[in-house]
């Protein structure tokens, strides 16, 4: 019936379209009937890869594509029961991409291996002549790409080779792809001139941060100028540099003289600085507890303070922030320049894996500057775009980004200072009359606020697998009314993958430990750990270890206490033990355990978690309940039994 309806629709179409559609449809059906199955092909392909534990559910006993569009294997995109695409991203894959094996997938149209660790020359993708989309960005491919590398790929529309180590000329066969719409070649070492792309449908091209030279083809003169930045000897529209008076290299001798002069000036400044420093040190011991951003950052002398403000009206169209400028992403803050930021003394708040945090004052306003040294995962333009994206976020439970500074070696993120500090310091610090422990109503309000902030991130940034990615108590700030403010959120796209795997909470989840991947429910697991920390007052081992260990983590301890019927020993005594709130505390504990289920399929999703938490009350009027646990089929089942 389905095939008949499809043929009936085709019969009403023009003859050439009928013929083309029938050929495609029948080729997928016929070829799959007379060749190896998709299962056999993919299993053989997997064998060519190294570090392929992320493909754990590629089971030869399970059909990868079942029904029309259902995919049973991770990273396999299906259409009409056939493999339509492979989306194997962020999996740490290595080895060889066996193109000869993929040729047998006759319906393959999309191939994405972004954010892996493939190395070596460009795979011979022209053998996959029916491909429409190709994504190889953020790997370690290197060497020259053959000039005919894309010859015969008449259906190819999207090609992304960004942030690899390709050298040589841009292959001219790219310019012959008549259907090409999007092309990303930025962040490589391509040299020579840009081919003449005449495709009328070419919407976006990016060749920034290469070693290209010569005039930009007239056909590309209407493109965004940022697509050509970082190529010293490119000229012509849309760049400001005219090809009639090209920039010349400064003679080597002149460069040497300049360098020596600069070094001499720096040496003199350093001597004066140390004399002045030791003089002040003798005058005030308080200087021993502070540091200045001038001491901590090597860019002070070489980058004059400038400011670029991106207003709400033109934020999406304003020229990208230039190197060395502070870029503001909010309209409701008083602006300042980089020199003002560096001029004041700064108190070191802490140092973590990602970098250090400082408190300083500018124009009478206390601000926090976070200095990152490991945000080298993306190029300059991608970084600017992601920061503007974060700047557009606005929610009562998100700590807003105010401004940022970009430099290749390091980045600064600037936000307002919050007096009450982090949830971690309030939970685990010393308590006294001036700093009492958090009571139950306050803790529940914090949990609800965190949930609302997470739900907002899931709605606003659905493209991120883990919209927060680094949720823990030290990344939850508390304002004057003890409302939570999430910080350090959505930074995974701009942090190197190696560092993220070592440090970010998302990569300490059970699913990453078992299968080498994060999912849309990974933030839910982090939220569950945070709720248990709030309820128990215990510091989670998860924050300190690099890998998930169910035998030592907080969720494992809570489960053990419940199975041993020692539930009363779970809750933090400092939050109070009123009889009419115990049932609500137990309900919240049950939600937290559901968030930390090691089986991702059984784990609640974020929307369900927030809805359940919103139903809880700060002071329940319900009857006092006893929390019990039973074990059924090796799975904990938690119930309430009224007394």
Characterize the structure shown:
It is flat, with a radius of gyration of 29 Å. The longest helix has 32 residues, at 252-283. The chain is of the alpha/beta class and 643 residues long. It is built from 16 helices and 29 strands. Helices cover 29% and strands 19% of the residues. Strand 26 (476-478) and strand 27 (484-486) form a beta hairpin. The protein has an eight-stranded mixed beta sheet. A seven-stranded mixed beta sheet has the order 4-5-7-9-11-13-15, with no helix packed on it. It folds into three domains: 2-235, Ribonuclease Inhibitor (Leucine-rich repeat, LRR (right-handed beta-alpha superhelix), Alpha-Beta Horseshoe); 290-416, Phosphorylase Kinase, domain 1, CATH 3.30.200.20; 423-642, Transferase(Phosphotransferase) domain 1 (Transferase(Phosphotransferase), domain 1, Orthogonal Bundle), CATH 1.10.510. The model is unreliable at 1-27, 29-35, 280-323 and 620-643 (pLDDT under 50).
